[in-house]
Structures are given as C-alpha cells and as structure tokens.
Amino acid sequence: MKIAITGATGFVGSHLVAKLQKEGHQVVVLTRDTSYGHKVFPSSAFPNVEIVNYTPTVLGPWQNSISGCDSVINLAGESIAEGRWTEGKKQSILQSRQLTTQNIVTAIANAEHKPSVLINASAIGYYGTSETATFTETSPSSNDFLGSVCQAWEAEAQKVSDVGVRLVILRLGIVLAGDGGALAKMITPFKMFAGGPIGSGNQWFSWIHRDDLVNLILQAVTDTNMSGVYNATAPNPVRMKELSQTMGTVMNRPSWLPVPGFAIEALLGDGAIVVLEGQQVLPERTLTTGFKYQYPNLQGALTQILN
Length: 307
Description:
Layout: E1 2-6, H1 13-22, E2 26-31, H2 34-40, E3 49-53, E4 71-74, H3 87-110, E5 117-123, E6 134-135, H4 145-158, E7 166-172, E8 174-176, H5 181-191, E9 204-205, E10 207-209, H6 210-222, E11 228-232, E12 238-239, H7 240-251, H8 261-268, H9 273-276, E13 280-281, H10 284-288, H11 298-306
Parallel strand pairs: 1-2, 1-4, 2-3, 4-5, 5-7, 6-13, 7-11, 8-10
Antiparallel strand pairs: 9-12
Helix pairs in contact: 1-6, 3-4, 7-11
C-alpha cells in the first residue's frame, strides 16, 4: 500500500512508519521540517519513505501528495503536555488539530485518485475527567477545553464521509513507551528511589502500549468493516495508585512516596490534568472488531517497556 502520514516523526508516528517500512509499504511523510524528517527516516534505512514538506494549517502543493495514496493517517497536533495553556497556546492546540484535519480532508476531496480511508486521531480528553464514571465510545463529550478541542477535531474529520471515504476516529489514551510520553517522565522518580502515586492516587489512568496502538491503526487501515469512533485504550485501565505499585514492582523500587501534583505540573504544564484527574475509558467498540491486544494488562506492558 501507499500511505500518507501526518505526525509521522513523533512518538507514535515514527514507530508506525518503521513498521510500515518493514512490511514493504510505501509511506509519504508529511512534515514541517524535512531535514528532521530525513534524519529520522534516512533513505538508507527507509528506502520506501518519501519526505514531503508541508505547513499543516495552510493549503499548498503538499496536498497533491494525497492523490494516489491508499490511506491517510492523521496524527498531527501540538503537544498538550508542554507549558502553560495561555490563550495563545490553547489556540495553537486547537488549530494544529482542527485546521490540519480540515486541510487533509480538503486534499482528499480534491484528489484525482482518492484514498479509501482516513484514520484520524482524537483523544480520550473528549470525555472529560471523573473518578466514578465509566466512558465508552457512545458516552457524551465534555464541554471543558480538551473536550471542546476533540469535538472540533472530530467534526472536521467527519466531513471526509461526504466524499465517500471511510473514516476511523481513534480516541487515544495515554500511550506507554519508555522513550517518550508521560511514562518516560514518570520513570525518573522511581529510578531515584522516590517514586509513588501521583496526586490523590485515586484517579483513573486509561493507557495503551504503543505497539498495540500501532497495530490498531494498521487494523483500521485494512479492516473495511471498521468505521466511526474507537477508543484506543487497553481493556484494563487502572487507578494511579495501582500504576505506581506496578511500576515499583517491575522496577524493583519503592512506590510509596507520593508525588505531589505541583511536581507533575512542573513536568507537564497544564497538560498534567490528564494524569492528575483522569478518566476510566473502556474500548468497547474496539473489542468488537476482534482486535487482539498484545498488552491488555498493565504489568505485562510495563515489564516489556521497563526491562
């Protein structure tokens, strides 16, 4: 297949590209920084990868690269876990998702040879936070900042259905891997024998191993029965105190020293809300597709990542 990907040089996208390359597919990497793109995907190791320069929030010649692709995977979006959510930052978080998706859909609509499917990222921030509620794909959205961003993001993606292209929206949980994301920042205190539950410890932590997320994206590309919204989370979310205990067990480190919320805010900025408040999200529709998780349970996931 030939697959175009935005957000391809990032924490999830780079591993997705590597797997597609290994399987012999052609990949069009849409990136704002082509020099960095060539650094991440050198032609010697990635002969099937084409690097295309684009400004995601602006229409341009890059859109021509969509024509002839079998599918498009849109993972673009400014990180919510860096810095304070000033009004300017909030606008950037929204536009990097809403306008990028709008322009991707426009490119698909204008393509002479349209892709058959758009896989568009969203996030479990759609549901808001709660210590008591359980959320599935049919749960209503929250009207807080992240919920509003996800609503606008998904609304732009939905428009691709008007031109007859299958749409799969994946609401991503907290993606776990050792070389980035929230987990990488949480590992440090444990290595220093200062690990413990973050905040109250009672908040829910809805997670997915990065390998499972990559495999779910690939299933969404090939499984023509998949359409609509799916939660990209493991089937067994945990409370923060269980995450802490499991990390301590796997790393053979103490896990009793609480990490105050302000310490996580210092690491994650206002994006700390994702781990300080949390939500219990279940992949109800995802399981109906027959998707097989390699890491359905936290201990297995952390053992693979940390050892």
